[in-house]
Fold this sequence. Notes:
membrane, transmembrane helix, transmembrane
Amino acid sequence: MAVRDAVTAGVTDVVWSLGFAARHAIPLLAVAALPAAQRVYAALHPGDDWVYSWPIEIVVLGLRLATVAVVWWLAQREDDIDDEKVRTFGTAFGAIGDYARAQWVRVLTAVIVAACLFGLLNVVAGPVVEALVEPGRAAEAWGFAIRNLVIIPLYFVAAYGIVRPALRADGA
């Protein structure tokens, strides 16, 4: 694969991830809503130690893992995943490693594009929120809401989009 084709494919992997996230926005937002609400509450009530107590953080961790599971479930419904490649973690990571070695330009391009996208979202989210909401606790809370509702689920989707060709039956 020529370098230009690999770069184009890497950008396409990230664009596919954005489309996947848009198509499945409702389940992704649903699983991200409670952690976002917890972070917003924490920003609005900084003196409340209950917000960061271990039972709440365990629930948030469980919902983060549920986000990964939802992305995987939606991906299996949409893509023709090769069952032999994902039989165990070892075979899945082996397939991803083989793919990354063979298509390193594509993977590197996709990672760079995704990192730039997430950096832009993080940098732009703050000033946009502060322009719309009075600076202070409310702006911080809205910033947490945007990051938890959009950026974190999108991160998991982009991660799948980058390794997706390694796991598909047709390898495309």
